[in-house]
Amino acid sequence: MFLSRLIPGMGHIYIGKYLWGIVLIALSIMLPISQIITLPFITYHVYMNAPVSREKDRSAIVKFSITLFLSFFAIIIISAISAFSIRTFIAEARYIPASSMEPTLKISDRVIINKLDYNFEAPKRGDIIVFNPTEALKERNFKDAFIKRIIGVPDDTVEVKDGKVYVNEKVLEENYIAQPPDYQFGPVKVPPNSYLVLGDNRNNSYDSHYWGFVPKDKIIGKATKIFWPLNRASEIK
Q1: Among 148, 194, 205, 218, which one carries the catalytic annotation?
Q2: Active site (annotated) includes residue 100
Q3: For the chain, percent helix, then strand, then coil, each to nearest 5?
Q4: Which of 100, 194, 205, 208 is catalytic?
Q5: CA distances (Å), origin 40, targets 5, 10, 35
Q6: Known catalytic residue: 216?
Q7: Is residue 90 a contact partner of residue 77, using CB atoms and an 8 Å limit?
Q8: Percent of the chain at pLDDT above 90?
Q9: What digits encode the pLDDT tens for the residues 11-23?
Q10: Residues facing residue 226 across a β-bridge
Q11: pTM of the model
């Protein structure tokens, strides 16, 4: 009981309940708050499972060392699996390699990509998204993910003319672009389950006005925060 109060799981190791000990040590390190919540239950459990008397055993230190090593090994494995799961299904960090999203995102910015939001809601106009290359981009030998801003959602009609972007014949107010676009494009209608994307650096961006629309199933996630460098850390708008 004394060992369990010092480190949850150590009491179980002492009485020979090694699996219980490894699990409880791993949880106490990964989730420190669990120590406070579950400590009375852990102490009670080790008390109920302890033998009535126990003679001193010189092999206890060896058992302790081996079990402690296995506990930390288990923590490493669990942490690696958790990190992989988070990156695959929830969020990941991305590096900005080009200037196509300036001034919003600059070269070498590190951003957080939220992969969860679009499981519950549709992408919206104004969102900055990361997406895998479309079929048109694959035909041009592009393999890396792109990052652009959604301008047109399904059924929108988009046109670029006279230095402005029109969505459904209305001028889109954009206070985030580097310069007004110096090209003409459209009008085009965005197909179902697809999105028209443009870079904020309108005149230096390889985007939908060159190669077409982004199917929804190509979207990886939404860029939500700049986390590096620290002097630029902020929410992305």
Answers
A1: 148
A2: yes
A3: 40, 25, 40
A4: 100
A5: 9, 14, 9
A6: no
A7: no
A8: 54
A9: 777 777 777 777 7
A10: 111, 234
A11: 0.67
